[in-house]
Amino acid sequence: MNPNRRIAIVDDDDALRDALVWLFSTRNHEAQAFASAEALLADYSPDRFGCLLLDVRMPGMGGIELFARLKEFTYVPPVIFLTGHGDVPMAVSALKGGAADFVEKPFNDNDIVDLVEKALADDATHRDAWHARSQVEGRLAALTPREREVMKLILTGRLNKQIADDLSISMKTVEVHRARILEKMHVKTAMELAALLRDAGVEAQ
Known about the structure:
Elements: E1 6-10, H1 14-26, E2 30-34, H2 37-42, E3 51-55, H3 63-70, E4 79-83, H4 88-96, E5 101-104, H5 109-141, H6 145-155, H7 160-167, H8 171-184, H9 190-200
Parallel strand pairs: 1-2, 1-3, 3-4, 4-5
Helix pairs in contact: 6-8, 7-8
């Protein structure tokens, strides 16, 4: 299944969960319902969902605490809070913390579908950027400490001879390191390497 079309609904109200699952199914979206925050966390990964609807108040862990726990993962899909009138200040605070939006109960079906579809579109964009960043970070992790040193100097525009002098190693060794760096990073030139890191939003460390 495409995670960009899957919605998680976390609410302790059985009737509301069932109604939302049915509503989204009529709009060509797959939704999966959870009766508690703990149930979602027990089987959660960032790739499973493109949007999460979280009830602010639930027995045990509430939606705000669940949102904080989700932030511990490498990627968090857009989160929309479902709130009662008295929970609006908490939901507004959650928006400042990175939530996508909140909806007051009872809500209009079309309104919540519109919000979720916007969140799914945002997720598609952000997820692509996350995957690109993760790939680049994985390649960087494969570099040895010495290769990282050489790479940083390459990115400053230093020539092989200058790098050799800087690190007190031979030019031949620098050439070998440079070749391995480009191979591991899946690029052909130093310019491509710089562009790859820039586009992924990753700094050489």
